[in-house]
Amino acid sequence: MRLFVLSGLLLAVFQTGVWAAANSTETETPPLCGINCIEQEVLKSTCDATNATCICTNVELTETISLCVTANCTVREALLVQSYSKHSCGAPSRDRSTMVWVIGVVFLVLGIISFCLRVMARIFLGTHTWGADDWVMLLAVLMMIPLNSISFPISRMLGKDIWNVHPDDITDFLYLFFWDELLYLGALPVTKISILLFYLKIFPAKTTRIACWVFIGLNVGYFIAFELVSIFQCSPIEGAWRAWDKEFPAKCNNINMQGWMAAVFNIVLDLGTLILPMPELWALSLSLRKKVQIILIVTIVSIVRLQSLASYATTHNVTQDYVEVGYWSTIEVPVGIICACMPSIRSLFSQVFPKVFGSTQRSTPPYTNLSNQSKPLSNPSRGSKMPTQQAIRVDTNFSVRSKHRDDSSTVELTTMEHSHEHRRPSSETKRPTTPSESV
């Protein structure tokens, strides 16, 4: 990892009084290798040894001192020199650690609440509505909980400048980040698999179902590939969090390239999962504005997430520059879970508050008994047990459509039954019906 190449390390101060003032603070005295570099390079520069302002603001001098320290000091010593020079020159100290854990906790709570409402919907509508998509979503939630919970202990380091973090804490930070990365790369495809299994419940078209299974396979492949790549990113494995100071012998892959590949493939799978049901959803009475909005939402999120990876594994200030990568990870996974749970949440609310959300259940279905076995129709007025009409088999294809206006913010989706047998409808109920099982 190139986070050890420290640019802009030293903003030196040489006045005797300034050195004494600096030493009176809590900042540790810099190692001898750093002091020698400062003295050597300042004497070569245009700055006077008594001019602290010139020494602190001269970019060229800073670069030459940085090169000297990198060549003559260890990484841990270089951090001490950098910390001393930053404090001596009055550089502001940034701390975004509170934001890190607050975002993680807030979205953790929202994700758990969404899944609990999904479970309540299944209980309310009947345990038979619990399916494979719910089991897979449970797995995603079990990954989300430790992923977002890590935000609290990692905030002790993440959000602060690396020169203000104790070297041993940097090792702890990278160890937590290692597990955070594994949970993140696992939760993303698992969430998408749950969504694809949900598609299989509501879309009957053969081409759509085949595409769903293909994307499920791709997500499984993504899960296996990037979990293995991340686990074995360094040899030995503990080099991922111990080799940062170059004192632990390890050989690591190109972490930056690995991060970008994982991000790009994930975005492709995100877009594929979004576009997959579009042929069927396009037939809905949605306005063009709403269809464009759906695509723009995913596009914007993808761009923002890629931007946060710009400094991934190349930054010199890892504990500060990884803040965006960290909190976007703790946002993206819960938001995916929330979106996947929304259809079930609406089904629950439509039952509890039918006047507000509407109901997906038909109050008096025209077919009171649907069965895979054809039964004869009897004539109750004559008490006869002999059929008066022959039973018929009907293959009915249902299309997904909205019952609401074009500008409605919701579209009801129900589980599709591809074929079944039923009695011949009476003259009052000759229209096709939508299966009553809520999703």
Report on this model:
Belongs to the RBT5 family. It comes from Dactylonectria estremocensis. By secondary structure, this protein is mainly alpha-helical. The chain folds into two domains: 73 residues, no CATH class; 260 residues, Up-down Bundle (Rhopdopsin 7-helix transmembrane proteins), CATH 1.20.1070. Strands 1-2 form a two-stranded antiparallel ribbon. Strands 3-4 form a two-stranded antiparallel ribbon. Helix 6 packs parallel to helix 16. The N terminus and C terminus are likely disordered.
What's the short version?
The protein is an all-alpha fold. It contains 17 helices and 4 strands.
Span between termini = 47 Å
Q: Give the overall shape.
A: elongated
Q: Radius of gyration over alpha carbons?
A: 31 Å
Number of strands: 4
The biggest beta sheet reads: 2 strands, antiparallel
The helix tally amounts to: 17
Task: Write a concise keyword list for the protein shown above.
disordered C terminus; 439 residues; two-stranded antiparallel sheet; 2% strand; Rhopdopsin 7-helix transmembrane proteins; 17 helices
